[in-house]
Design goal:
Elements (H helix, E strand, L loop, with lengths): L1 E6 L3 H14 L3 E7 L2 H10 L4 E5 L1 E2 L2 E2 H7 L6 E7 L2 H10 L3 E4 L3 H13 L5 H12 L7 E5 L4 E5 L3 E7 L2 E6 L4 E4 L3 H8 L4 E5 L2 E4 L3 E5 L5 E4 L4 E3 L5 H11 L2
Parallel strand pairs: 1-2, 1-3, 3-6, 6-7
Antiparallel strand pairs: 4-5, 8-9, 10-11, 10-14, 11-12, 13-14, 15-16, 16-17
Helix pairs in contact: 4-6
C-alpha cells in the first residue's frame, strides 16, 4: 500500500483529486491534505508519504516554497497545474512530469505510474522549472534533455542545431557532443521557436546565433559557424532570408 499527500488550494479540486485517487487507485491511501504552504509544512513535518501531489500556485506561496522548506523530501512528486501555455513550456524545459487540470482518469493514472518508476527531480531541474515559471517572458538559460538512460542538462546557448531521426531528435552541441533524445523534432521546434531557433527543413532546427551565411546555390543551405552546412527547404527560403535580413539591419 502506497501513501499520498495532496497539496491543493482549491477545495473543490482537492476533494475531486482525493476522490479520484482513492477510487481509481485503491493501492494508494491519501493520508493527509493541505491547502496552503503553511498547512503543508505542518503536515509534512509530521507525516511522510510515498507520493506528493503538489499544486504549483497556492494562496500563500508556491509549491517550490514547500520544496525549499523540505529539501530532503523523499516523496515522489506529481505536480498539478492549470492549463497555461507558459506553465506547460516550463515543465517541458525542465523535463518534469505534471498533471494538467482538468485531467482525465487516464492522465492521472499515467502520472502515478511514472511517479512510481522515477526518482525525484534533482535541484537543478527544479530550478529550471521554477525560473521558467517565474519569468516566462525571459529566455531560459538551460533545458533538460531525456536520453534513453538519463536526463542531461545543457545550456540553450550551447545548442547549435537539432536534427530529426525518425521519432527522435539529435542535439548537436557547441563542444561537438551529440545528444540523442527520445522526442520528435516537432516537439522541440514548438518549444524553442520563441527563443531564436528556426525550423529550416523538415529534419533541421537551427539556433540563429550559429548561422554564418545563407548560400543560395545548390538548392539553398546555411553555413554554420562550426563549419557545418545544413539544407534549407524550398518553402522555408523566403522566411530564412527575411530573418537574416532583420538580424543584420
Amino acid at each position: 500500500m502506497l501513501t499520498a499527500i495532496i497539496v491543493e488550494d482549491m477545495p473543490e479540486s482537492l476533494a475531486l483529486l482525493k476522490q479520484d485517487v482513492m477510487t481509481q487507485h485503491p493501492d494508494i491511501e491519501v493520508v493527509a491534505t493541505a491547502q496552503s504552504v503553511v498547512e503543508a509544512a505542518k503536515v509534512l513535518r509530521k507525516t511522510h508519504a510515498d507520493i506528493l501531489f503538489l499544486d504549483i500556485m497556492l494562496g500563500d506561496g508556491t509549491g517550490f516554497d514547500i520544496l525549499e522548506i523540505f529539501p530532503d523530501l523523499k516523496s515522489k512528486i506529481i505536480f498539478v497545474t492549470a492549463s497555461d501555455e507558459f506553465a506547460l513550456r516550463a515543465f517541458k524545459f525542465a523535463a518534469i512530469d505534471y498533471v494538467l487540470k482538468p485531467y482525465s482518469h487516464e492522465e492521472l493514472g499515467l502520472a502515478i505510474t511514472r511517479a512510481k518508476e522515477q526518482i525525484r527531480p534533482n535541484q537543478e531541474r527544479l530550478a529550471i522549472l521554477k525560473d521558467t515559471l517565474v519569468a516566462p517572458e525571459q529566455r531560459p538559460d538551460k533545458i533538460s534533455l531525456h536520453t534513453l538512460d538519463k536526463i542531461i542538462i545543457v545550456n540553450l546557448d550551447d545548442i547549435v542545431r537539432c536534427e530529426s531521426d525518425s521519432n527522435n531528435t539529435i542535439f548537436h552541441l557547441q563542444d561537438k557532443r551529440r545528444v540523442f533524445v527520445t522526442k520528435t523534432l516537432k516537439y522541440f521546434s514548438e518549444m524553442l521557436r520563441h527563443y531564436d531557433f528556426v525550423r529550416i527543413h523538415q529534419s533541421h532546427l537551427v539556433n540563429l546565433q550559429y548561422i554564418s551565411a545563407y548560400i543560395k546555390t545548390d538548392g539553398g543551405y546555411l553555413m554554420l559557424k562550426n563549419g557545418e552546412n545544413v539544407p534549407v527547404s524550398v518553402r522555408k527560403k523566403t522566411e530564412i532570408i527575411e530573418i537574416l535580413d532583420r538580424m543584420h539591419r
